[in-house]
Amino acid sequence: MKHDKSSETNEEYYPMIERFTLFSDFFMFEAFSRSEEAVELVARIVTGKKDLKVARYGMEVKRGFPLFRHVRYDLFIEDTENNIYDIEIENEGRSLNERAIVYSSTLIAQRMKTNEKFESLKDTWVIFLTKKDMEKGYEPYYDYKWFDPKGQRLLSRKAAIRFVNGQYRNDDAFGKLMHDFHCTDPDQMYYDELREIVKYLKKDPEGVKIMCDIMNEAERRWKEQARREGLAEGRAEGRTEERENMMRKLHAKGMSFEEIASITELPLSTIKTFFRKQSKAV
What we know:
By secondary structure, the chain is α/β, with parallel strands linked by helices. The protein is 44% helix and 17% strand. The protein is built from ten helices and eight strands. It has a six-stranded mixed β-sheet with strand order 1-4-5-6-8-7, sandwiched between helices. A hairpin with a 4-residue loop joins β4 and β5. α6 (192-203) packs across α7 (205-228). The longest helix is centred in the C-terminal third of the chain and has 24 residues, at 205-228.
């Protein structure tokens, strides 16, 4: 990675930035927030809607109504026909079915206006891009629909739930997209829309500085949270559950073991041992 050394970047973040992929959710957040072309490309491929046009998109916390759980959408999209889509990056695969139901229900409820007729409901999609093949069927994606108990009648076509297989690698649109989502080197990407924005954030001095600033602020917040929860080394006694939750959250964001150790100020051996035990328990 070539950088202008005179720029005000923090070089300790360079190795992290080089390892980032679009499965690192806050890197994805920054990339898609800067490229509508990339958003539209991904939306068209994962839905199969070749003519989909994005009207607006964002990554935001949806407050919903007072009784609703707060939901942060990784990528929220509305198309020009007022259909809405929530695309989620998923590295761990924890409680996917339950989360999909909650996200789908929240999207629908938030979308309906007071006194709006139910039959006017537009399509809602909840799409998880899962890093691994959760169903182990080697399909590009898995759809879940709302059937009656006997599975003979479709209740509704309005609410779609789809899990996209991140390990799928055939020579088609899904295979190329998932290849690009796993790529650390933008020059190896298939899609120009993704290559352009990822290359900017990884190799352009201006983009690298943006990522360094983001990493610096994120690390400051994570360490402050760790201190508040007593997660720093020497203060972790009696706080095992909180420490483990923190490690899981960082790992789910695409962090390496070394990066988690740096942020939580825990020994690298502790991080590796924890996740080795986690993998055996699955």
